[in-house]
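Discussion board: Methods & Data

I've been asked by a reviewer to show the raw model output for two of the constructs in my manuscript, not just the figures. I'm not sure how much to include, so I'm pasting the format here to get opinions. Each protein appears as its amino acid sequence followed by a line of discrete structure tokens. Is this the kind of thing reviewers expect to see in a supplement, or should I convert it first? Here is construct A:
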Amino acid sequence: MSLAWTLLGAALVGYLPGAVLYRLPVLQRARRAALPAEERVFWQVLISVAWSLLFVLATAAAGVYQYERLLAVNAAITIAIVAGFRARLRWHGSAAKVTIAVLVPIALAALGVWRFGPGSEYILGGKDPGVYVNEGVAIAHSGALFRQDATVSGVPAAARDLFFPNEGNDDYYGHRFMGVYINDPASGGVITQFPQLFPASVALAFQLAGTVGAAKAVVAWAVLGLLAVYFSGARLIGRLASFFAVLLLALNLVEVWFGRYPNAEMLMQTLLFGGLLSLARAHQDEDPFFGWVAGLLLGLLIFLRFDSFMAIAAMAAALALAWAVRGQRIRLSTVVPVTIAAAAGLAYYVWPMRAYFYVYKANLPSIGMGIAAIVAAAGVTLIVRRLRPRIGDTLARYLPLALGIALVLLAAYALFLRQPAGKLAEHDAAALRTFRDAYVYWPALLAALAGCIMVTRREFWRDPAFFVVFAAFSVFFFYKIRVVPEQLWMARRFVPMLLPGMLLLASGALFGSSTPEHRRTMRRGIGAAMALSFVGWQFAAAARPVAAHVEYRGAIKAIAQLAGRFTTRDLILVESRNADSDLHVLAVPLVDIYRLNVLVLFSPVPDRGQLEAFLTDAAAKYDRVFVLASGGTDLLSKQIAAAPVAFVPMGLPEYETTGWEQFPRGPRQKDLGYSLYQLTLAPTPPRPFVLDVGYFDDLQTLRFYAREVTEGRSIRWTQAQSFIAANGLTGQEREIELVLHDGGRPAGATPATIQVFFNGTSLGTVNVSFGFKSYRLAIPADAMRGVADADAPAQIRLLSSTWAPSDFTPGGDTRQLGVMIDRVEIH
């Protein structure tokens, strides 16, 4: 892809359509021409990107999306408007001049690029970020949101349980991968677990900049998010206060982490604050053009996350409140697009996204209760509207203060009094305390609580939607965090609204009002800047380890090298998620990015009869069949042979995951080293059994820990119970030899012992000492009876006494370790 084509694509996707639409001489153009030059550019970019995303979603839902088609449509729109309006698109001196203030958003954007770059290389499957990225690339390749997976449909019905058994769920048949559901195995119909607006943006990034662009699309959203918060805050609390708030936001650990880590919340931050600003421009500033912009942005928000409905409901409540109390009109240009999008969105969640929606459905009120609540809210609004001549001024004066005081009282309760009880989990009871201790600290939180009263009372009617949405998010997520309580995972809840909103309130409280009626003094401005600089220093220091880390650096190159070993005529089987390894995360990019044929085994001990029948069928469909293994899979038999192809170490940096009560200490190495074998259906001749544990042993070991190298030997640690599959035996063998090491157990640990069983027959117990030594046990003749004729390998079962290094070294290895095993021979 040439640089010129990439730049043209970026212009057509992210600037030109919005630029000409913004300049249209309609809907009181003079109002938007009067906006600062830097905000005008921001709107032109955001409108272009939003339109492009709408196009991707709509055409991909119909299965006809093409990148070239998007570029052609955007070029046609641009050319048609330029040709139709010509000179009337010029400002002719009516636009606000460029001032030195333009340097502020430029500086913030540059800070964001530096702060969030280079971004993670999260193309692995398994968790939400990898699902988002790979789904985006799949949309780019297929042009469809709802796809038919030929590899799935090619699995014979009798073999489906090997890979995706029927889970008996009304909403889907089974799992293709973690986060990807199979709706119909016969047709191969698959659907991602998550709404597809963010993947639609990943599709655009992939087509602009390849796999690197797809993985790092979130960086662009993080930069746009900073600008959206800045412009929204500049209108509400002034440019200087907003600049400091966004500067703190860019320094904060949460923003830095999720600015690099593919997630829907960063896009939600951009659309949410862009939507709030356009809503205020349309309704409080009475600019009709922004009514349509708000409708577009908020309509898109619905297809990002289901909890976007909460934000839209809060905005609707704010509009209703302003209409009832202040008599401000509600623009149909906002209501109509959002209503249409809400109807389409509900259909989207109830039907194709039903597997995602079921969690929300289970917690939503009944239809009757929902209708009753809407009717009651409408009734109260109409009553207030009717009584406005008598109570309007009172409500306008005291309602903002009451909201601010209520938030402060709730915060005080959550910070000092709230304790777990009944159905209230400990992490939910401590949600606000965790937010304070891990991410924002006391100075910033106290300033924000002051802002809840001061800024809300002073500025509420300038942007009621901001304050109502902030209150709704605060109550909803600090009441229950509603996500797996792990650091840093749960911090995603703070990204869209809570963290940026809190910082705007804190900065607004410290700087005070900047309106002509309330000019701030130089002394107050300097004091506020110094206080916020101290907070910024706290944020930067806390975020330093995260800022120095790139999640999964090297993954893009490593997976490209793995994919290069195969062709589209090959089939790759990947060991089970239950095989004590994470190799299944490699399967997703192999399928979605490199369009290879991959199936993940469901069990580490697949049914051999089913597997032999499947391999017979696969031999007629594919040139070669491979298996990717690491943790241990028992699948060999007299008819299934495996030839080693390659062993590839792979270690990727991954930040530690901890519970909510403990903060991660930093990055570690994620072991994704793998062995590759080619499977064939061929009788296995008898041969001496010699297994070098830790080296091409993946199809003969089960329930061991990952391979390691020590003293120049490849070894594995046993678990409490481990298994070895011994194939090729003649039945004449009479002795098993094990090379073992106790691992250097500390004083006080349970002595190292291992019980050995052969096909269920106890061979005895070995007391394992320090150093690698050979231990021999006799095998009774009765235990060998029938071994040579059996289709399945003989089974060696090892029962080990275990110990955990963390019991002796704080913060150490938490694995329950048995003994080191280096070699097994049967004579």
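Construct B, same format:
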Amino acid sequence: MKLSEIIRILEDIAPPEYAMPDDAIGLQVGDPGQDVRRVIVTVDVTPAVAGEAIRRSAELLIAHHPLIDVEYSPLRSIRLDVYPQSLVYQLVNAGVGLYVMHTNYDSAPGGINDVLAERLSVVDTKIMEPTYTGKMFKLVTFVPNEAVDAVRAALSEAGAGVIGNYTHCSFQSPGTGTFKPQPGAEPYTGKVGEMEKAPEFRLEVLVPEDRLHDAITAMVAAHPYEEVAYDVYPLWNRGKECGIGRYGKLQTPMTFGGFCAMACEVLRVREPRTSGDPESHVETVALLGGGGGSRIKLAHSKGVDAFLTGDVNHHEFLLARALGLNVIDATHFWTERPGMIALAPRLHDLLSPQGVTVEYLDDATMAER
């Protein structure tokens, strides 16, 4: 399977537009045209992970964190004695590609934060910090009566015509289309050189921005006309909202001490840093995988009883204490790890029919062997 084909699947799971501004996502090492038969998913491209990927003859690494980051570690040279240049060199030399799914996968449905909520039994979740709102479009085409149902079905299968919990939503109105086929045309109805008046339906559907290309492609393929007339109108309607962090209710309310114990067991965190009253009641929880110490005030504004994240510094703990917010610093790595682990079988189901194997690997899994 070509790397470019896998990239299209990855971008369907976590569209690039979901990423925070200037985030270093996407293909960082590799050739889109290379063949891929073995994929390894990880959180960080460490020397151990890179070495094991090479040893296993993997052609692609999918990581959460960028190896090349203009803001934090700009790549000014490729040296074997300097990190991370040395790892970039090793991957290039071994023909191993590297694709990064970072804040776009944080925000995406089923991504880092949704998996974290699922693992910790937090239900009825909402987005903590919206970072992206999709654009909506109205797609209009003109279809002969006998083809309306087929074209509508094709549009719906491509993701158009969804309003809330309803699919196959459209509006159609009758009218008359006119056209005069020119020499070389092969008209569905009418004759070359003669004006044709055809009974048609104006068929219109709502389409989110990320489905527009697929919807147009599906519409043209299902439409019986040689040349398909259609219009695309940008709308003020707000599309799907995505963002980082989640907040919701614990499936089973418990004390803060009990929540700490449960979270550490589920996430396998050995030495969490906490602030709060172990006997206080915890029913609502905010979660942010990775580094969320700067979001203490935001979590507090959601009215939650506890906030679980990583990378909380001294002053942020003091702020949480002053606000009366229970906080667990379960570390950056261990709060993001579940989401990347969950990505591996999800990708395996999509790629295995094409003969591609997918597995998860990190320093912790290798230490257990």
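Answer (T.O., handling editor elsewhere):
This is acceptable in a supplement if you add a one-line summary per construct. For B, something like: The chain is about 30% helix and 30% strand.
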